[in-house]
């Protein structure tokens, strides 16, 4: 019986590994194709489509990006700035709110948690949000248009962090610190935050990816007339997809005819540049990701 159970366990492990390998390849191959397409000759891509073995290779897309780095590079730097500011502010707001509602002794903590969950399920829609942010908060054509709407605090992240605080940090540690004279802020900064690195790293990574990939806020709240300097790399890529003349109409690109642009492969090259920082950063946070999601997603 023991040998039979061991054999079945081995078979299941082999099958599981094969499934995971196939799934990993299916997830990885699109990125490989994206990189190869960015090094493909533009005319070859137009005629034959994208291929893992293109007939002709070319660096034209990257050469064009390098030549126009003042436009694309500015968008790239703006993306980094928005991602850093937005992620830091989001972590501060999310962690402080989650710490407050995780305290059962806080008056009204159930009401606050209900309001948080309610916003996860219901909202006023795009029209109401646009009116409030544009006419009341006046964030149009400002950097806050890329930071505040929809991304600054996620109720889902609040729930993850709250559950982590509740299930992974012993209340006796917090009570002992308060007995020793530590204030609430001291307890939060010196005890709760150091013990919550896994969940904060997990939430921070998800928030950073959301900010990095976001283009809808720029579409809604930034105009080419007054907000072009705030365009992020994703917004620029979206503009290219909508109208390849977007780059040609800039003063630095006016002398270049739209027909001469490596439009097809340039989209791929900008996409590669756009996702490169996330790919580089992910391995440093991956060890926290599973632990943070697992512990933060459990509610006793």
UniProtKB/TrEMBL annotation:
It comes from the Bacteria. Residues 76-285 form the ABC transmembrane type-1 domain. GO terms for biological process: transmembrane transport. Pfam families: BPD_transp_1 (PF00528). InterPro entries: MetI-like, MetI-like_sf. It is a multi-pass membrane protein. Belongs to the binding-protein-dependent transport system permease family. This is Carbohydrate ABC transporter permease.
């Amino acid at each position: 019986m023991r040998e039979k159970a061991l054999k079945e366990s081995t078979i299941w492990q082999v099958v599981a590994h094969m499934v995971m390998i196939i799934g990993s390849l299916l997830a990885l191959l699109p990125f490989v194709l994206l990189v190869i397409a960015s090094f493909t000759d533009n005319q070859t891509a137009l005629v034959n489509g994208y291929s893992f073995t293109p007939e002709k290779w070319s660096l034209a897309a990257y050469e064009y990006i390098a030549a126009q780095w003042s436009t694309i590079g500015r968008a790239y730097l703006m993306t980094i700035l928005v991602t850093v500011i937005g992620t830091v502010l989001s972590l501060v707001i999310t962690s402080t709110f989650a710490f407050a509602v995780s305290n059962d002794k806080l008056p009204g903590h159930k009401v606050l948690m209900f309001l948080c969950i309610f916003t996860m399920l219901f909202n006023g829609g795009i029209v109401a949000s646009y009116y409030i942010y544009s006419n009341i908060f006046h964030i149009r054509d400002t950097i806050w248009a890329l930071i505040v709407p929809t991304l600054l605090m996620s109720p889902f992240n609040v729930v993850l962090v709250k559950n982590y605080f509740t299930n992974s940090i012993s209340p006796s540690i917090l009570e002992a610190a308060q007995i020793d004279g530590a204030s609430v802020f001291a307890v939060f900064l010196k005890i709760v935050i150091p013990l919550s690195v896994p969940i904060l790293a997990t939430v921070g990574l998800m928030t950073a990816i959301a900010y990095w990939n976001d283009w809808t806020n720029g579409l809604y709240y930034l105009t080419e007339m007054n907000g072009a300097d705030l365009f992020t790399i994703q917004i620029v890529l979206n503009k290219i997809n909508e109208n390849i003349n977007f780059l040609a109409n800039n003063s630095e690109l006016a002398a270049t005819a739209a027909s001469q642009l490596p439009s097809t492969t340039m989209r791929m090259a900008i996409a590669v540049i756009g996702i490169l920082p996330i790919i580089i950063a992910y391995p440093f946070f991956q060890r926290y990701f599973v632990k943070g999601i697992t512990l933060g997603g459990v509610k006793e």
